[in-house]
From TrEMBL:
Name of the protein this chain belongs to: Type-4 uracil-DNA glycosylase
Keyword DNA damage: yes
GO biological process, one term: DNA repair
UniProt xrefs under PANTHER family: TYPE-4 URACIL-DNA GLYCOSYLASE, TYPE-5 URACIL-DNA GLYCOSYLASE
Cross-referenced SMART domains: UDG, UreE_C
NCBIfam families in alphabetical order: UDG_fam4 (TIGR00758)
Keywords of the record: 4Fe-4S, DNA damage, DNA repair, Hydrolase, Iron, Iron-sulfur, Metal-binding
Start and end residues of each Uracil-DNA glycosylase-like domain: 86-236
Family that this chain belongs to: Belongs to the uracil-DNA glycosylase (UDG) superfamily. Type 4 (UDGa) family.
Classification via SUPFAM superfamilies: Uracil-DNA glycosylase-like
């Protein structure tokens, strides 16, 4: 029961509720839910009705608030950062796409994957008959690093509480790790070049590592054609697995 989880937490030396428990407790009170444990409350979010839509909208607004409050590392104080970039999409999606971090366009608009790489990602999803709005798209870190450099390990660690909160709410079946940073987040010390396209199962997530769309855009000639087909294959495998594990979910716009 949710109340028992709270009591167990309060019995610890440090009296601090996990953010997911606080959010779900607030959700329970906001909508006067009868469910008494976290799994049952999260299950209501996946229903296909107006009430579930309102609950997801409420939680998404709270996620944005939570993200915007974060000042755990120095990235949010640098000139290259103008605003945080929360994830976006469906909080009931069985499929989550995770990139590295926001770039110039993402920082400017406050949305993930809206630059050239983002447009390519949208094209891939469109060809799969998947609406961006019906999956969840986010990044490991939510602030743009200087010159779009690779996030430092200490920055990833400082920002991880936001990604973990997103995943705790969504509980996806399948994750597409777009590039080395999200892949190494789940499997430290791994190589995207060697292990791309190979399933890993971590923390009950089926994770498909593939190349970041920005990597595709840096290719040319035969390499471009080859990389496009590899990524296309990876996306197809990920979508097929997500549909197998959650066959009732509709990825296309109604």
């Amino acid at each position: 029961m949710l109340e028992n989880e709270i009591k167990k937490t309060l019995a610890a030396d440090e009296i601090k509720l996990p953010e997911i428990v606080k959010l779900l407790l607030d959700l329970k009170m906001e909508f006067n839910l009868n469910e008494t444990n976290t799994d049952d409350i999260l299950r209501t979010l996946r229903l296909d009705n107006d009430q579930a839509v309102k609950e997801r909208d409420y939680l998404y607004k709270r996620l944005i608030e939570y993200t915007n409050k974060c000042n755990n590392c120095m990235l949010c104080t640098l000139e290259t950062h103008t605003q945080k970039v929360p994830g976006e999409g469906a909080l009931n999606s069985p499929l989550v796409l995770i990139g590295e971090g926001p770039g110039f366009d993402e920082d400017k608009e406050g949305r993930p994957f809206v630059g050239k790489a983002g447009k390519l990602l949208t094209t891939i999803l469109d060809k799969l008959n998947v609406s961006r709005e019906k999956v969840y798209i986010t990044n490991v870190i939510k602030c743009r690093p200087p010159q779009n450099r690779t996030p430092l390990q200490k920055e990833i660690k400082a920002c991880s509480h936001i990604l973990e909160l997103e995943l705790s709410i969504i509980k996806p079946k399948v994750i597409i790790a777009l590039g080395a940073v999200p892949f190494n987040y789940f499997k430290p010390g791994s190589s995207i070049m060697k292990e791309r396209g190979q399933w890993i199962n971590v923390r009950d997530y089926w994770i498909m590592p593939t190349f970041h769309p920005a990597y595709i855009l840096r290719q040319g000639g035969k390499a471009l054609t080859q990389v496009k087909w590899l990524v296309w294959s990876d996306f197809n495998k990920a979508l097929e697995k997500a549909k197998e594990l959650c066959p009732e979910y509709n990825y296309a716009d109604p």
